[in-house]
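Running this now, will post back.
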Amino acid sequence: MEQLRDDGHITGWRNELYPIAEGFYDEPLLLMERAATSFVGAIEYGVHINGMLDHIVAGGQPANMGLMENVIKECMEEAG
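Update: finished.
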């Protein structure tokens, strides 16, 4: 994956691992760099807080972080 990044095929590298599993509640088969998941066609999950017409807060669901913990992290990022 790092070679694909270095060659410019994978952009937006974050050093954030995403779980790759058969389903949301299943144990991960492996952890993969967030930026590479769409490159290989892996399913990505995230958290969203909706307003009237748009997402107020949204972000991907990284490995080793609970849903509420991630919502709080994403809210803090949006708040600056």
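The chain has a mean pLDDT of 94. More later if anyone needs it.
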